[in-house]
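Technical appendix A lists one of the benchmark inputs used to test multi-chain prediction within the project. The record comprises two sequence entries:
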Amino acid sequence: MSGMDLLNVYHLQIITFMAVNSILALSFYLPLSAGQLSLGCAGFMSIGAYTAAILSLHYGLPVFTTIPAGAAAAALAGVLLGFPALRLTGVYLAIATLGFGEVVRVLFLNLKITNGALGMPEIPNLNDYFSALYRSWGLQGDLAGLDLPRLAALTTVVFCYFVLAACVAFVLRQENSRTGRAMAAVKADEVASGVMGIGATYIKMLAFVQGAFLAGLAGAISAHVTNFIAPGDFNYHRAVNILLFVVLGGSELVWGGLLGAAVLSVLPEFLRFMQDFRWIIFGALLAAMMVFRPQGLLDRQLLCRFSLRKKRAMDGMDARASSGEVD
Amino acid sequence: MLLQLKGVSKRFGGVAAVDNLNLEVARGEIVGLIGPNGAGKTTVFNLISGLLSPSGGDILLNNTSLAGKKPHRITALGVARTFQNIRLFNHLTALENIMAGQYCRTRTGAWQAFFRTGAFRKEEREVRERAGELLAMVGLAPYRDIAAAALPYGCQRRLEIARALATRPGIILLDEPAAGLNEAESESLQEMIRRIRETGIAVLIIEHDMNLVMSLCDRVAVLNFGQKIAEGTPNRVRDDPEVIRAYLGREETGLA
């Protein structure tokens, strides 16, 4: 037994799922940042996952085209759903989008091309892809004490976190831009934002479709990480789970959802020793959380306490631009 | 003529909230819109700014019809407004509120923000500078990083005006800007409105504070039950017997 044991494929897969779940948290956060409570993430995720699986299994397309294609398919579905659904607000939108997720699930359950309830096995795996890649480079044995499967799994982790980092950067930079201010304005007061020259319909659609894209991206990646997908993977439990990432982590800030996704990805694994009791403990923890800290783990105040730079972030200033201005 | 209302009507069921209203505002003019509660003044603002569409008649801005257009399009054409019950973007800071108000005069998108292109950085700098100028103009520079909801009431009123100015309007509609302000605040508000006019922006103002209306407005229109019952210089309107009867009560003591 060595320290390398921590880097076994099982652990690496959990770390990979943390990244996928973080992207899902972003996909929930984005519409919310424009004032929309959308529970369609699981539906969009399944569209991304199935698109990627079908394109790679039936059409033999490489992984690096199926993943963007899955995200694009989900974004397209987001546009189509957005037109009718974005007339709704609040809890009505939540119910409509949850209904959309169920419609998609039942559709995939009954389609031939998705293999119905049996699901789609043997989806080309990112690990295998990287293994083959390294082998084609002439790499056979160990590299820095890592055998090929571990090296490939590690590459998958790096790939997923690279994608996550790009997504986080996009969301953060958008927040500190004209588009992000418009989203915040629409969230704060839709009527006033219209009179201030902001087309709320466009802004809401943009946030909604961006969310759908990210959910599809997460779905496509997860299809290529797990080998196997079935309609049951994307039921309303999944939708609620994604909601929990953001509610538990804190819905005011991007970082809240990311923290929530990380905690909720790892916590069930840590509680594994309790076997069947772990879901009871898990539920109790969530209930306690909602009683003692309803705003989520992270909020502006907490960030403010961390550091001065974060305090500026709390005040809503782009720290970079302001320091440039003061200088 | 900058803004023209031609025979504008708005009916809610059987009630005519605004009835065949004709009103004109010229560039750089300050026009008062007064009348008792429920006379339809705010409805007129909602019609001009596009929150309601007229049941009849037409509204023209620089000879372009506004009737039936969406609020954000009308704002882009040059109409800005404030609300009787202040409607700021509460959790945004004072500066951000004004920056958000510049949305329709700026262009860069999310991708430019992502790659921090030159165009994005330049526009962002300009938006920030302009927001700072507007904050200073309404005397709120020290409050720039305070959330709008946390500002004192009088400051919120001024911030709302600054946010409306950020849209670079040709005309600004002020819905009871002096409501709830004390004497000193009301004085500085008048001063601010005069400065706005000096920049060439027309002002249409609903106000119950008659001192303010009389000293500020070039012209006053009086609404009662949705109909215009008088229009003219403040002095003429003040002495108009119809106005005194309908609006100010029966005792012919005139105004302060």
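Chain A touches chain B through 32 residues (CB under 8 Å). Residues 3-234 of chain A form one domain. Comparable benchmark entries are summarised in Table A2.
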